[in-house]
Amino acid sequence: MTTAPAPRAKLRLGDRIFSGSTVTAGVIILVALAAVAIFLIAQSIPALTADPAELKGSPASFWAYVAPLAFGTMWAAALALLMALPISIGIALFISHYAPRRVAQTLGYIIDLLAAVPSVVFGLWGIKVLAPAVTPLYGWLVDNLGWFPLFSPPVSGTGRTVLTVAIVLAVMIIPIITAVTREVFLQTPRLHEEAALALGATRWEMIQMAVLPFGRPGMISAAMLGLGRALGETMVVAMVLSPALVITFVLTSSSNSPTIAGNIALNFPEAHGVDVNVLIATGLILFAITFAINSVARIVINRRKAFSGAN
Amino acid sequence: MRPVDSSTVNALTTGRLPRWAPWVLLGGSWIVLCVVFGFVAAASDSEFNIAAALFLGTILFDVLIFVVAYLVEGARQARDRLITSLVATAFIIALLPLVSLISTVLVNGLPRFDIQFFSESMRNVVGEGGGALHAIMGTLLITLAATLISVPIGLLTAIYLVEYGRGSLARAITFLVDVMTGIPSIVAGLFAYAFFSLILSDPGVRFGLGGSVALSLLMIPVVVRSSEEMLKLVPNELREASYALGVPKWLTILKIVIPTSIAGITTGVTLAISRVIGETAPLLLIAGFTASMNYNLFEEKMMSLPVFVYTQYANPGTDVQSYLDRAWAGALALIVIVMVLNLVARLIAKIFSPKLGR
Fold first, then answer.
1. CATH class of B133-352
2. Contact criterion met (CB < 8 Å) for A291 and B183
3. Nearest C-alpha of chain B: how many angstroms from A258?
4. Residue A38: is its pLDDT beyond 90?
5. How far is B155 from chain A (nearest CA, A)?
6. Where in chain B do CATH 1.10.3720.10 domains reside?
């Protein structure tokens, strides 16, 4: 005995064309991302094979040129994250658990405004407003805490230091970290919160026991997303930082380790020959770092989604 | 306060600070620090620094509320009050740069925010005068082209992910789109340069469409994510009703799903535009900068407003102040454009969104 085959819907031409074009669009995105990697690698090869003496500033090798840049990128971004993370978590808690519900959305919108400001405007503000404002503070720090390695003299007279850059970067990544952590905090199971409050916990004890443990993976990935943004931020660094090809931890001096992105923006318009390839190779390194950090952050977030039970 | 009779005291509120206490303390701390800073400013003849006064006043409040609550309410409540005030402090700290930034841009940008700024280019201008018409034109053209590239790709991908996508391809696209949102903008610019300089074998390639390609790389993930969210909101009953009437899937999507979610999609696209319209770094690399008008996306360097701000700041001539004035005016124009786009996006979402609830 044979069973009749299940009736199948007729595939119409319109359906085929339409679904085909949607698949194509999706594949284009994958191809574009692959193309970014491929073309950056292709343009980087001349830099790796070139004679170091031909490079700008004739460093000992390509890696000797990259090391201060990579260090500066990490250092500025880490400082920014250090400042932005506690403030962002505070803001996220303020919006999700402290502010009255009616104004919470407006407050969130105000923080989002920070994200809407173009980076070049932040750069202009950083160099013209923030840097002069913090210069006296740096002078005081170096005079009184100069024995501490981070503040060793001489002090920068213009405020164009890595600390100023990190402050501006922190302001720029606060909205990103806040947005993600706020979402996670809002997903905390209501019953956990109410159970804690019913046992007589104060609001902070409730947050400590119910909200923060639940939100920890979300906070970690939010921090990584913010870090990724800070690593790649260009204009603020290009406009504010006064760079020198050195590796230094000093926060208040006028010779700071440059960052990859800022270095590209400053040197690319005038570069030619193999220098262009060198800049592209540094860009490839930046791409690889941010890609890795963002991937890990997204994996953490996605795993959270699957197991949280909140949706 | 009136004296309370101990027999009528409400047991639930004894030993607690009155409701107005934190607010009075906050206001008091601000006033004290403002007075102190006022005296310092008057004594040293420097400018009154209101941001620092408010900031230090808030810190003083954090300390005061902890001490007062510790004395009146005990250690646990005091810690709770301290955290509450710290969390509010975090919000105020974030507000300070925003307020400072917007006020500085307004104050410094308004003097040159005039008709000349919007009607002239920088061609043959070396001192005062001149404007940003070429930059505004370039920004409009580049962003328009980027939108034309990104919206079809982004929207179709979102449709694929919501309506068709199953299995590993959809998962890969979702994941990579998420990761793409974190690509540094300068890498997008480098890619556009690497791509076009290889294809056109021109190591000095600079043109507007290259900038559009770089911007689309940043814009597509935003469009995909927001459209995806909006398409998911369309109730399945609508699709099933359409199928039940014998409408093919592609027509269901085109005539039912997209019209239902078009308000949300438009909002998402507008927000995506507002995100890329302020991008500087990629355009600096691939679109270059010039002082002249250029209406052709395919040839020659093309100025854009963010790059205009940057070059006015970075390459001032002999008359530094007039260059700086133009930079601030450009920054003001940028902020106005971005804010208007944000506002429009929110208005679209509010006015045109379908009323699903009853």
1. mainly alpha
2. yes
3. 15
4. yes
5. 9
6. 133-352
